[in-house]
Amino acid sequence: MTADSPAESSPADPAAPRRFTDRGTGLWLLITGALGALATMLLLYERVQIWQDPDHVTACDVNPWVSCGAVMESWQAATFGFPNIFIGVVGFPLILAIAVSLLGGIRLPRWYWGGLQVGVLFAFGFCVWLWSQAVYAIAALCPYCMLVWAAVIPMTAVVTARNVEHGVLPVPGGLRRVLADWWWVAMVLLYLLVVVSIIVELPQALSF
C-alpha cells in the first residue's frame, strides 16, 4: 500500500512510500470487523436461544469437542461477569464505524489511533486467553468464537504495523522497517500456532 495522506509523526525515512494508508487500513478493518460482527451476531443468537431453552442444541454443536454450547456453559464464557459476546456486540460495530470513516476520507487524530491500538491489543490478548482456555482447559472448540479469533489476528497485526509505520508507536527505525515489511509473517505464524495447538491437543475435533 502507498501513502495517500501524511502521517501523525515523521517516519524513519520521510522519502519512503507508505505501506499503510488510511484507506488501505480502513479496508482491512472493514473486512475483519464484518467477520467479527457476523460471528458475534451468530453467537448472540445461540446465546439467546439457550436462555430461552436450556435444552437448545446450537447450530455449531458438531461433536463433544466442537460445540458452541459446551463453551458457552463454561465460566470462561462470562469472564467479566457478563457474557463475553457483549464485548463483541459493542466492539465490532465500532471497528466498522472507524473503517467507514477511513474509507470516506476522514482523517483520524493521533490520539484516536492510540486508542484503537489499545482496543485491538486488548481484543488480541483476550482472544489469546480464550484460545488457551478452549484448547487446554475446556477441551472444546466454538466455531463462531474461532471466527472471532480469525478476525482479531489480522486486525491487530494491521493496526499495529500501521501505527508503527506512522510513528504512533515509537520504535527504532530498523524495527519500524522490519514490522512494516514483515507484519504478515506474524499473522501467518499466529494462525499456524492455533492450528497446531488444535491438532496436538484436540485431534478428536478434526474427526466428524
Automatic annotation (TrEMBL):
It comes from the Bacteria. It is found in: Membrane. The lineage of its organism: Bacteria, Bacillati, Actinomycetota, Actinomycetes, Micrococcales. It is a multi-pass membrane protein. Belongs to the VKOR family. The keyword Transmembrane helix applies. Coiled coil: none annotated. InterPro entries: VKOR, VKOR_Actinobacteria, VKOR_sf. The chain crosses the membrane at residues 27-45, 85-104, 111-131, 137-161, 182-200. Keywords: Disulfide bond, Membrane, Oxidoreductase, Quinone, Redox-active center, Transmembrane, Transmembrane helix. This is Vitamin K epoxide reductase domain-containing protein. Residues 22-163 form the Vitamin K epoxide reductase domain. It holds the Pfam family VKOR. It comes from Nesterenkonia halobia. The keyword Cytoplasm does not apply. Signal peptide: none annotated.
